[in-house]
Fold this sequence. Notes:
By secondary structure, this protein is of the alpha/beta class.
Amino acid sequence: MVIHAEFFSFGRMDVHQLREFLVNQRRVSGWTQEELAERSGVSVRTIRNLETGSNTNPRRSSVELLLNALGGAPAAPAGPTVWYSGDSSLVPTQRTRPEHDRTQPVPWHGPRPLGDPMVGRETDMRHILASAQRSRLMVLTGPGGVGKTRLALAAAYRLRPLFPDGVAVAELRDCPPEHLEPVRSRAELDRLTEGLTGDLGGTGRRLLVLDGAERVVRQTARLARRLLDEHPGLHLLVTSRRALAAGAAEGWEVEPLRVDGPEDGDAGVPSAVELLLRRVRSSLPTLDLAPHMPQVTALCRLLDGMPLAIEIAAQRLRSLPLSSLLREENLFHLLDQVDAGALSAHRTLSDSVRWSYDLLPAPHRELLHDLVALPDPFSLDDVLAGHQGSTGSAPQLSHRLAELVDASLVQTLRQGQYQYRVHALVRHVVERARQQSVAPCGSDVDEYRARAVSAAHSAA
C-alpha cells in the first residue's frame, strides 16, 4: 500500500485528506490514539490535533511516522510495508513481502514489548528507527531504570516489517559477569545467541536484540563483530549501561524523562509528569491529582525523571499520600519496599543501580563517594580541586570519572563546557553503602558468588 504520494504534491500537503485518512485508517485498524502513538512514536497530542484539524501545518517527519505505522496496520490490504531510510525518516515503498507470505506474521522469539503506550520517547524512537536502518549495530546506553529495555523492544516491534526472518530477543542479565568467570560468560553468551541465529544462513534477515549486555560488554562486542561477519542480513540492537567497543556501532544515550519546560506530551505537561499521571489513572482512577500539580512536578523532580522510579512512586500512591513521598530523606526508602519485578528485571528500585556500584574498583567507589558530596552540576575542575594533595594524579582522576560515566553512574551534561551530575537514585545507593561502610547487602554480585559456591558444592 503506497500512501505517501496522495498527501504530498509539489512540496505541499493536503491536510484535510490526511486528517480523514488518519481517522478512518486508525478506526479500521481498531487502534486508539494512544495505540497509534505507541506504534508510530508520535505524541498523542499531535495525533489529536491532526484529527481535530487544529494542526494545519504538521511536521513532515511526524506525518511519515504516522503513515508508516498505519501502513503496517492489520487491516491494510497490501500487508506489512517495507521501509528504507532516505535521511532520518522512514519512507514506505511499494516493495512488500512475497505474495505467498503476506498473511504470515513476522516471527518473534523472546520477550515482547509491553502493550501500554510509551511516554516522552518520540525523539528517541525516531532516532532509533532511522539509525537501525542505516547501521547494522545499534547500542542503547543509559542508567538502570531509565527504560532502555522497553524502548528497544518497542523499536524492534516497529521495525519487524524490515526483517522477514523475524525478531529475536536474548536476555543477557543471567550471564556470569565476565570479570569473574570469562570462560563461562563467553560460553553462555554463545549458547544464547546460537539458538537465535543458527538457522539464518547467508541470506536471512533478522533483528537480534541483546538486552542487558553490561555484565558481558567485552564479550558482547566480540560476539557482535562475529555475528555481523557471518550473517550479512543480521541487524543487532543492544542495550547496555556501558558502550560497546565494536567499530561502526551507532550509539544512543537514553536519558531520563523531562521534568520541567514545555513538552509535546499529553495535556502539554512534561513527560515525567505525564507518565506519573498515566500510571496513577490506570491503577487508581479515583485518585485525582489535578489539584496537586505543583507537588506532582516536585516529586518527579526529586526522582530526576527516572521512569522506573516514577512508576514505583505511582504504585506507592495507592497506600501513601503524596506528601509522604515529598520528604526527600524518606523517599527512596519508601520506594525500595515496592516489588519492581513487574516493571523491571530488578527486584527493587535500588537493585537497578546497586550491582553497578558493587562492581566498581575501590578507587572508583571512593571517587563516587566524593562526587555525591558535590552540588550538581560540577565540572572536572571541581573534581580535581577537591582532590588536591590526595592520592591519585589528575590523569588518574579524569580516567576514573570517565569510567563512572561509562558505567552510567554519572551523567554528562555536554552543553558548552562539560559538566556532570549524579542522579538522586545513585546518590541514595551510594550514601546508604557509605553509611554501612560495606557494599549494599543482597547485591547481584554477592548473590551470584553465593550461587556459584552452592553449585560447586552440589557438583562435588
